[in-house]
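User: Batch of two.

Assistant: Item 1 of 2:
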Amino acid sequence: MNPTQPAHPHFFTGNFAPVHEEHDVPALAVTGRVPEELSGALYRVGPNPRHAPRDDNYHWFSGDGMVHAFFIENGQVAYRNRWARTPKWELEHRAGRALFGSFGNPATSDPIARGNNSGTANTNVVWHGRRLFALEESHQPFELDSLTLESRGHQSFGGQLTARCTAHPKVDAETGELHFFAYSPEGPGTSGMLYGVMDPNCKVTRLEAFDAPYASMAHDFMLTRKHVLFPVMPLTTSVERAMRGKPLLAWETGKRTHVGVMRRDQPTGTMRWFEAQACHVFHVMNAWDDGDTVVAYVMQAEVAPGLPDADGRPGNPDAMAARLCRWTFDLAGSASGFQREYLDDLVAEFPRIDDRYAGLRNRYGFYTCHATPRPRDDSESVLYDSLARFDFETGQRDIHTLPAGDVVSEPVFVPRSAAASEGDGWLLAVVWRDKEQLSDLLILDAMDLGAGPLALAHLPHRVPFGFHGNWRSSAPSFSVTHPMNADTASGSCRC
């Protein structure tokens, strides 16, 4: 079923448009050579609306989640995709139409939907405790089978996690603990926040509440070996504003950016708040302790990219451009401000590192960027044509740029081995091919991006633009553990 085009065609045309089939492809065609040592699964997720939106305020961020899995083994790549069959997806599937307004807005939702779970599970995919979870920050983690991608539902972890959970939890590489937070756990427009810790077996061992300066969409946070930091920025949520026909989620001019900093071994009541002029960060690259300071690498913009102001007016594209920036917090001093310094002039997003260095000082960072200028009125300026590796010791970049018109997803780093030095491994990313209207899995040598692809695994269809993904080591391919019959030997799909 193909949806009719909504009022915001930017988010429903080209590779923003959803796909309407679920595929099983046991062996993708490969150009080049997939490294034999590369063995595991790359999981990615993004918005893929099952039905045409019901309101004029549809936004890319609010589409139903679809998970894409690439199983890599013995130099071969298999693929599978499935919708995350959330309660929202199931309810609308039975109705045969969209029932929820964008972001679950009650003002534009069908009465049938009001009071029901509006989760989309569309933002990130995390492997923890030998379990796979699709995440978005307005609801609990949504579990899927790691091989079949069969939906297992929202999880409360023994009744401990009953509200929201961030889409960007952080794993402590030393302890294996998963640190997470939630904004507005009492609902949109409320200023409370939660901080929690989950052990390596998915048992919640800590959950504490605290108050933020105001109700903000806090998409990401920072974790060091000693501290945890919570940015609160003027991207605010307001139900009252939404009921007046204005955006539920909007940039609120006049507010400042605040960052709460606390020691991990102390309660949330000891948190110290720093502040600066208004700025916005969707994604953090990394943070670490440096004596009496905490340093973080973030992708900073002056206003929130892609979202309107409180009156529904679009923002300034120049101010929405994010770039690599260093934040420094002086914990020994008494000042409430913190330092911000841009490190790179390229418009960039989706920062990643070698995750073995999470919470430690990292030398290398990876991200998507624009290596070639784009018109400021380009509606697809949020899309990126290049992958970069930044060396923080030398300040040098290494870049791989795609052919004109092609777009690359967030990169995911995979180390060559557990003992490999930092950055020694591969970058994996999904690429949209504009001319062919298809997608590829791109595999690069992370220390030599300029050399071009080691391998490209070619999909017979496209993967719509999405957000985040992660790697699971040594995950067997379904084509090996679940042999397919003759009808599916060359790939199958179901609607």
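Item 2 of 2:
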Amino acid sequence: MDPLYFLSNADTPKFPILVSVPHSGREYPPQLLDNLNVSASHLLRLEDRYADRLAALAIAAGFPAIIARKPRAWVDLNRSDMEIDPDMIVGMDPERIPRISKKVRGGLGILPRRLHGAGNLWREKWQHQDVLDRIEQDHEPYHAMVGKLLDEIRSAFGCALLLDLHSMPSVLDENRRKIGFVIGDRFGRSCESRYAELAAVHFRMAGHHVQTNHPYSGGYILERHGKPERNIHAFQLEVDRSLYLDQDLREPVAAARSIAALIRDCCVMLSEQLSGGYQLEAAE
């Protein structure tokens, strides 16, 4: 078993959809815990807590999936290798990062630095070589595998779609309605709009409030892997944690299975769209 990620149904994909779960990893390296400046419980806020469970029924149905094993606190797979905060690194030339992004300034770069209400996460700064090692040994292999699988799916089906699965804290829209799901496609740059729109309709028909690209439009994973011009599409699906976790947002509740079933059914519907199943049915 690969120490970096779990792979499912990847040898001979039966569907043109790949599910990615980059932020649910719960295998914390000892050197990470040894350098903590806060209680380890604070790191749970960085996790897309048990988002991998939401992919379980899609995996059981045969959809290919890649799930990170290490946590976001170790390395954030949804950030580029240039989203580094030089102030948390020893031995790094700040000139290497000429522009600090808003996410990095907020403490959430490729190595998270701080959390609101908790302060700085680490007792000691990380060595620059340590950062380079995490990028080389954890970050890049994950993306290389995602790219490889999408290319293989496209070769087999003529198209591919990456469903990048995340969870989010409860957020309200401008009318103070709780948002159940957010679908992000970088405002149409990472995915043909019809696929994101079909997904939104799917979750709305199940009674959920859905928004697209607000407040989350997608990050580095979509930027790197969404290539609609090559018929490789990618969108991010954010799920309100309160839909499937207990009041403490720690453990899954029974409703997690129904959310997982909704996600599986969304994958089935999109797979039929990608493979032309609906068009063939309509023509008969």
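The chain is about 35% helix and 15% strand.
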